[in-house]
Amino acid sequence: MPVILIANPKGGVGKSTVATNTAGYLARRGHAVMLGDVDKQQSARRWLALRPADLPLIQGWDFDGEQTVKPPKGVSHVVMDSPAGLSGKKLRALYKLADQILIPLQPSLFDIQATFDFVQKLQELRAENGGNDKRPQLAIVGMRAKEGTLSVQQLQDFLRELGVPVLGLLRDTQNYVQLAARGLTLWDVAQSRVERDLAQWQPLTAWLEGRHA
C-alpha cells in the first residue's frame, strides 16, 4: 500500500493543493484512497467536507504524526498533507511511514532555502537508516511558476544542483483555487477546462504510479 507524503517545512508552498489533487487523481484511477491530514489547519479535512458525494470517494484520516498507525482495511493508497514546520519526532514518524515524499516549493529565495535544508535533513534520516534503503523516494515539484520570470530561472538553477528528481513546474493559475473551493480536483471537471494543467501533471502521475523508472 503506497503512502505518499506531501511535505515541506515552509508554509504556503502549495502542499494542500498537491495533496488533494494527488488524492483526486488516484481516486479517479479507481484506487481506494485515504487523505490523511497532519496539518493543524486541517485544510485537507475542510476540503473533503466540500467534496460532492457523486465523485470518486476519498476517505479522511486523522494522523497526529507522533506514532505509526495503520489505515483501515480496504485502503490501497494513502496521501498525507503535512504541516509547516515539520521536524523532530513527527518528521521521523512520517519519514518511516512514507514510500514516496513529494516536496512542493515556490520560486522564492525563502522557499529555496527552506527546501534545501529540508532535503538535507531527509538525506540525514536516510543515512541514519544505513543509506542503502531507497525508500522513501524523493521528488520535487515547483508551484505557481510564471514562465519567463527571473524567479523561475533561479528556481531551475537551484533544482539542478539539489540532486533530487524534479517532476516539473505547475503554473500559477486560478484553476486550483476555484476547484479547491468546491472540493474538486483537476480530474473532476471537463478536460478541456484544465487541459494545460493536466499536461503539467503527467510527470507527477507517472511518478506516483511508478512509471518513472
UniProtKB/TrEMBL annotation:
Listed InterPro entries: CobQ/CobB/MinD/ParA_Nub-bd_dom (IPR002586), DNA_Partitioning_ATPase (IPR050678), P-loop_NTPase (IPR027417)
UniProt cross-references to Pfam families, sorted A to Z: CbiA
All copies of domain CobQ/CobB/MinD/ParA nucleotide binding, residue ranges: 4-185
Domain of life of the native organism: Bacteria
Protein name: ParA family protein
Species of origin: Roseateles oligotrophus
Organism classification: Bacteria, Pseudomonadati, Pseudomonadota, Betaproteobacteria, Burkholderiales
